[in-house]
């Protein structure tokens, strides 16, 4: 028995052409796959077994087929072993080879068994083993066939051939993915919901490295436009939630260490002078929280309401299962036609709800929390007297009767029902006790507060007392024009009883959101007709030529002609370089043949470098001019074209467009236009000119290359067409998926206090990770599709280069080899250039989507013009301030229900008119119509005889003044907020602050009126922001019409009375429209306008309305304690 045959240990056989020796094959080639497998077999099996068996896995057809073929291959190797041993002169190397194969096959069978039942992904180790085994087995099969005189009739040759075939079959079966196992979970594992699991998780190694698992999605995108539901779920290893848990655990561990150190310092009596708590109720909240703990203090109700861009039901924060009782939290919605948290409805930061509706949703959220301690911060400031009494009776005194309730309020109408009263004055507790005890102190703060709220308001002029008992006479019974008559409603428009049962919903709202008119932002909520405004509108199909034309027009026609001209010069220089290289080569050939040297070597070198430097400079010139000047100018034009229509868009646009969508356009899309698009566009046109240059030179050198160019162009065209459609849709979905993430991030920051107070940070973190995964899902697939395209382009380039090389070999006798070498190098460049052209075309197609989205904003429908040149109004308009509503009706958007219906009202100049009504009756819509924030659907509004629809918006709004319910302040100094156009002196500003009862507070600030205010006035209380808005209004000198929309809702009664006196003094002679829920603030007004469901139901003097015991105004006054 010899180890090797006569050829010995050499590698290549001397007796067989282009073959290895049998000894080398048996020893070296056989060792490669088997030794590698055996080395990693034991640790791999140990690791797989340690993972545990997957649930619900059964042996399928694939398992049985593979095990059958593995046993077949082992049987063949056993037959080869018997045959080798049976021969008298067998080689020990062949025996060793067969034994190694048998051991390796047994190990492979064992590993496959465990991996099939324990691992979801295909086995990389087995895949590589069977591939190497199948390829290596070809050599001994070929050698045995050549060495045997009988050929395939030889038993060993036949067995070797069968083993090779079976090895390739097993390798093929190994490439077949296992059944969908993404939904299967292990014991004690986190369940991950993936509706459309990615094939990547169950694809084999070769499919993953070549990204071929993405091909089915690309095929689907070729047939129709992709949707988010079509996309594969994110790979489990890329999910953000496990990373969040890991990060949170580390942060919690560090915080635990810090808290322990603080406790140690407290035990040692260490104090920190800098750690002072915030003022007011935040201080109280912190104290109670520190004393009682999170488990008791869960339902905190901040005055600054937080309603996220999500469904209404999740806004309730807490599980409804734990709140099963005879009471229903929806009963607090009395006054609404439909309770806003029944069913599912979409809200965008509460922009489509009125102030009262927001408060009731927040109260319902707190009630559902079912906590032991409740803190309510002025929760009834935006609701009318009916709803105020109903909520207090049915929530605070009924549902929450057994709970600890802390009510922070500026009003005094519910103080007598409190068990204990704490009066805070200038940050200190001035009084503490029960209502009856504190009221006995005639000099106490509580007594003064209650009496001020009950004070009988006197007219500033005439001094005649106004009786609130309902029996007084009208002081100023105006006549004429019929405005003095009380307007009664008929039919279903009668008086609304707050105690009546709410109408039942016609049907349970479906979870599927449907199109709507609106939530009647100022009217009643209709959950069956909610706007679907959370989804970004995604365009579909090809990006049309108008989009490209729009971008090119921003660059400029003359600029594009100039760039094309310079690129032609660049291409000419490249042609000159090629021709110069040819001449240089010919001169060297002549010199080698013995001819005289025409020019010195330096001549050729210096001229060549001159050509190269010229081409480089020209290309640098093109790049600099385009990227620095033209692209920058185009980006600025596109940005301005987006911004100008946006700031001129009507409020209806912002009602249905979240801030996240707008930020997405101006962040992600503008960044793409600024950075990505110019580079892609310049590279594309440069490569096109280079390709035309090379293509022309190749055709001129050898016409046969047309044969290669045709399939080359066809292949690139088909590949680009297949990829382009899907990549474009992925890019659009990627851009749209960022909007909810941006919106959620912004809203989380805005509502951070509420989220933490409700101890609901974890749920918002989970929502953030979900939205992040949704965004990453599109981004990941976009990047993967780009990598797949690059691999396919490289593969196609390899085929083309191989074809060119074969053509050069076949024509080596007839063609000029020097020409072929130049052409071959040019073909190599052309392949790379065409690859770049296709890549740039795809990138341009996907990036131009950002221009498409920017163009959509440039086409937004704007509000009416700011200035109308032909307007004939006087500079002093309006002089009297008379306002006439003539059959006026309006809606928030086209196709929506009317929020004001046929309003006929005449408000004489200088009159003070109070506007009241239930929450959602349309009160704020009156001021919005007056400022033309919403346009008229029917009828008209006239001010001093001028139809406001004939005026420019700037001309109209600059002559009117409004103090809104939710005042907005800029992130600048107090002075700039009061006088943004710098028209007033410091003395006038201090006088306005004094009139608004804010001077003493501003004086305490370090920099006075130069103190900087945070964006939105976050470093000021709501009441202070309202006072600052009052001061700003008092600085206005050219107004004769003033609108107050709950301007003092967050101000205490004492300050409110002072403000009312200041308003009467500063705006005497002006027409004042006051929307108020505090009836006492409008009791001295000339007339009262009562609205119900967008219609005028009462309009008369307070005295006349109070004499009618069945009037709505009388019931409101009685509920608030202003009528007997």
UniProtKB/TrEMBL annotation:
Compositional bias of kind Acidic residues: 490-500
Topological category with respect to the lipid bilayer: Multi-pass membrane protein
Biased composition (Basic residues): 506-518
Domain ABC transporter: 226-451, 883-1118
Domain (ABC transmembrane type-1): residue spans on this chain: 600-846
A Pfam family reported for this protein in Swiss-Prot or TrEMBL: ABC_tran
The keyword DNA repair is annotated on this UniProt entry: no
SUPFAM superfamilies listed in its UniProt record: ABC transporter transmembrane region, P-loop containing nucleoside triphosphate hydrolases
Chief place where the protein resides: membrane
Family per similarity comment: Belongs to the ABC transporter superfamily. ABCC family. Conjugate transporter (TC 3.A.1.208) subfamily.
PANTHER family with a match to the protein in the record: ATP-BINDING CASSETTE SUB-FAMILY C (PTHR24223), MULTIDRUG-RESISTANCE LIKE PROTEIN 1, ISOFORM I (PTHR24223:SF443)
UniProt-recorded name of the protein: P-loop containing nucleoside triphosphate hydrolase protein
Organism listed in the record: Entomortierella chlamydospora
